Amino acid sequence: MQDAAVLKGTKDGYEIILDENANLKDIFSSLRKLLDNLKTQTASTNPQTIAFDIYTGMRLWPADDRSELEKIFSDYSYFSVHKITSDVITKEESNRIIEQSSVHIVDKVIRNGQEEHIQGDVLFLGTVHEGGKLFVGGNIFVLGNVEGIIQAGAPDLEDKMIIGDVHNAQQVRIGEQFEILADSKHEMNSGTVIYVNDLHVLDYGKVEDLKQINPKFYNQIGGVING
Amino acid sequence: MGKAYVITSGKGGVGKTTSSANIGTALAMLGKKVCLLDLDIGLRNLDVVLGLDNRIMYDIVDVAAGRAKLSQALVKDKRFDDLLYLLPAAQNTDKTALNEDQVREIVDELKPDFDFILIDCPAGIEQGFMNAIAGADSAIIVTTPEISAVRDADRVVGLLEQHPLQEQPHLIINRIRQHMMKDGSVMDVDEITHHLGVELLGIVFDDDAVITTSNNGEPVVLQAENPAGQGYRDIARRLVGESVPLMEIKDEQQPSFWQKVTHWFRKG
Ligand SMILES: Nc1ncnc2c1ncn2[C@@H]1O[C@H](COP(=O)(O)OP(=O)(O)OP(=O)(O)O)[C@@H](O)[C@H]1O
Ligand SMILES: [Mg+2]
Questions:
Q1: Which of A10, A97, B5, B25 is positioned for an S-S bond with B219, CB 3.0–4.6 A?
Q2: Mean pLDDT to the nearest integer, B206-210
Q3: Number of domains into which chain B is organized
Q4: What is the pLDDT of residues B148-185, one digit of tens each?
Q5: In B, which residues are within 8 Å of A109 by CB distance?
Q6: Which atom of ligand 1 is nearest to the CA of B19?
């Protein structure tokens, strides 16, 4: 029988490939054999801790089986799991990725006491009333009216931006940085970009300067071709 | 089959009870059969504003607990024959004495016998509020032109979106001081209505007579010439389907039609 767990060296360290067609029992016993072998081999030299990457091919490992796997590693004091990767993802995960990478058009009234949480970028056409909160994982492009609290990069991404006129807002937040607009007067118009600068402070710029403000984003919207 | 309206606001003291009493009375004056439900458990005062406090035998909690029949607990307002009734709140129990199902059941039992059921909601957005909206087909949201009241109204509109009633909510802007609205020191009627995105049912001016009449147990709508009373009468007419233009907001208070007429009578 071919081994269901095979060790491979990569440029980043060690990878263990688990046969996607083998049954779990064979995989686990084969893995133990492999780790036992490694333990005796490294025992002569100075013991050193190794964190393995686990690759599962076209097989999806549910959480239960993963913890079973990690339990095996916990029997070996010098070995641990660095990460588990595979070529497949769950529908749930794929939906989350789609959610995160699309621009959502939001046209609603977020009232006092209401919170809206959205992953991905948002084109906001609605209204956030005083006391309402719009929390967005990605960037926010504001064409509507914001009188409440608006956050891009929620909860902690500082490379996201708010583009548009939000001078009526109570607070703007990007990642963990925030500003209470009553305390600071900024000229704003539809071409205003709010971002976190290199000093981790909220800053205000113009769409014309996006290339300098956030080169990565600028490339993504096609600035390379145009510029 | 009658329709049940909850009269609510979020913020306290903006005129829910005053509006319930006056709209109820005005509807009875139009010949409609009305039942007022006081859900401000522990702090009842709708009975006082209507001058019915000395006639209470049982209250809504007695009915919910099965200690009294609904018909025993209803207090009749003798001024309007058989048209205006009150189901009083309990005073010596806390707000947890009632739940949503019980309120729904009581309202459903009242509906076949009445044209309108007006539910006076307590301030706040806790259980008392949930109870009050439970049996309602529609909501009348009361605010004043003050920012804090409008904010709370906004909160309530949001909650009503999460617990939608059969019909879209209506808005009453109460305690309007004409000169302040005219000179822009408070939000105006259009601004408030537009901001909240709720259909305007009517406006009511601030008037000392509202307070004095409440103290006497005689709702201000009973005074034919009073502008606040007219606001409430207009609201009642809109509720029965008439179309009535909004009262005009003027700088100086002009003598109203009724004032002119009484003047004329006195002369004669
Ligand atoms: N249009 C008006 N003009 C003058 N006074 C008014 C007007 N409307 C209400 N008031 C007064 O405001 C006070 C509060 O009104 P009311 O009790 O109706 O409010 P409420 O919303 O029911 O209060 P709560 O939240 O405590 O139940 C009362 O003294 C009442 O007389
Ligand atoms: Mg009240």
A1: B25
A2: 96
A3: 1
A4: 999 999 999 999 999 999 999 999 999 999 999 998 99
A5: 197
A6: 18
Separation in Å, CA A192 to CA A206, A208, A222, B243: 5, 9, 19, 46
Is B204 a pocket residue for ligand 1 (Cβ < 6 Å)?
yes
> Which residue in A109, A114, A132 is closest to B197 by CB distance?
A109
Model confidence over B19-42: pLDDT tens digits? 999 999 999 999 999 999 999 988
3-state secondary structure at position B38? strand
pLDDT value for A227: 33
CATH topology of domain A5-89: Transcription Regulator spoIIAA (3.30.750)
Kindly give the distance from the C-alpha atom of residue B224 to the centroid of ligand 2, in angstroms, as a whole number.
24
Q: Would the pLDDT of B255 be above 90?
A: no
Specify the CATH number of the domain A98-218: 2.160.20.70
| Buried/exposed B148-180: b ≥16 CB within 10 Å, e otherwise | ebbbbbbbbbbbbeeeebeeebbbbbbbbbbee
Contact B197 A114 (CB under 8 A): no
Whose tokens are 């305390």? That residue is A183
Domain residue limits, chain A: 5-89, 98-218
ipTM summary value: 0.74
> How many Å apart are CA A149 and CA B204, to the nearest integer?
33
Give the best residue of A110, A111, A145 to mutate against chain B (max B CB count within 10 A). Answer: A111
Contact B106, B4 (CB under 8 A): no
Question: CA-nearest residue of chain A to B195?
Answer: A129
How close B195 gets to chain A, by Cα (Å)?
8
Question: Which tens digit of pLDDT belongs to each residue from A122-174?
Answer: 999 999 999 999 999 999 999 999 999 999 999 999 999 999 999 999 999 99
Question: Could you give the CA distance from residue A119 to residue A136 in angstroms, rounded to a whole number?
Answer: 6
- Ligand 1 atom with the smallest distance to the CA of B142 is 21
